[in-house]
């Protein structure tokens, strides 16, 4: 009886050993497969991201005081960019509006890379979408990036610029960036520059009295917030008549 129990115990032990070995082999194969798959996904990701870094190294502006040439902030802004036909989401971006260049950060060495302008279709940062537009004899604008404020049948864009101004104060050279924003209403494919309330009403002249009345009732102060006023005017103009 004792011998029989020993044989049974040995058989059970042998079975467990074989089962464990088979399970270990299966687990090892699964881990190897998962590791291979992870490497493939990572390689594909790196290959895709690498296309974003095929520009040239960005030449940093040497700030004298606290001035900076970028849109909104001198820190990285997380945004999206459609570059060379590929959409890159949640990547660090800076927009140097002084030279109209988009900059990103290299994911490995932290270098600032200036994207190839002709490969940038559009990019978005801080709630603003900048579209790469090309100037023609018809539209009458200069080629560059334009902030799209309203994208209806009638469109509103603004070209943002920064000009470096230097002056001498107390025998010290003081540098400042003067920001200029050029507003455009796009109607029937033509870009109309607008500066004052009257120029907006001239562009929307077929509903001039209605738009004027709307702006007055809305109590939108054109001088205080030109961009908001022009967008609201375009939205009203595009809305169906009551």
TrEMBL record:
Keywords: Signal. This is WG repeat-containing protein. Residues 1-21 form the signal peptide. It comes from Chryseolinea soli.
